[in-house]
Write a structure and sequence with these properties.
203 residues, 7 helices, binds S-adenosylmethionine, globular, alpha/beta, Rossmann fold
Length: 203
């Protein structure tokens, strides 16, 4: 219970996504971290500041025609190049592992309750985000955090994708009967916002 309060209090003090790694470190939930939706690896590199044992980046780097799953509209050769560069970087940092595949497939490779922290920044539609939350919730350890990006955005940059992150997060905690006290959002502070759900014992 004390740990619950400590982590929740620390979550509530966050003002920016960039502060998350330090919070994870201070709360001692910084060993196994996952980011779902990596693209060039900016968020992944930021997570290294938590001083983790392992940071795993999950992305399909796939030129699917669905703009919610290929938001930059890059071609397959361009996405392959993006992956190759990051893969090359990961060869020289033993803390980084990349898993190339669909979120819903890759999540099955993990044991339940394995990760301290999972950050979702992939398909931002209501259905996509809700599915990712369900895939990854079981992988998060008790006392860990499931989180994600773009809580405040209504569409992607070119306006082609309707974002449903807020509605998905609210539906998820309602469906799972998770206390709204465990949900913290970081809103409108120089970023498009993040949401974090603390997983208490018993969930
Ligand atoms: C907004 S970008 C991620 C940005 C990154 N988190 C950062 O901080 O720079 C979204 C990424 O999610 C990936 N993605 C979208 N849907 C996916 C899915 N179902 N499975 C795996 N990756 C997916 C896309 O390939 C894209 O690279």
């Amino acid at each position: 219970m004390e740990i619950t309060m400590r982590t929740l209090e620390a979550m509530k003090k966050l003002t920016l996504r960039q502060e998350i790694p330090q919070m994870l470190k201070e709360c001692g939930i910084n060993q196994y971290l996952i980011e779902v939706g990596v693209r060039w690896g900016f968020g992944l590199r930021n997570l290294l500041q938590a001083d983790p044992t392992l940071v795993i980046g999950v992305d399909h780097w796939n030129a699917t025609r669905n703009p919610a799953q290929n938001d930059t509209n890059l071609t397959q050769p361009q996405l392959n190049d993006m992956y190759s560069r990051l893969f090359h970087e990961s060869l020289f940092d033993s803390r980084i592992r990349l898993l190339r595949g669909k979120s819903g497939d890759v999540c099955k490779w993990f044991p339940r309750l394995w990760a301290d922290f999972v950050y979702i920044d992939a398909d931002h539609t209501h259905e996509g985000c809700l599915a990712d939350m369900a895939y990854w919730w079981d992988v998060v350890a008790r006392g860990g955090i499931l989180a994600g990006h773009d809580y405040n955005l209504a569409t992607n940059k070119n306006g082609k994708v309707d974002f449903g992150v807020q509605t998905a997060v609210r539906q998820f905690i309602e469906d799972r009967k998770i206390s709204s006290d465990c949900l913290v959002t970081i809103e409108n502070k120089g970023d498009s916002g993040s949401w974090l759900i603390y997983k208490i014992n018993g969930e």
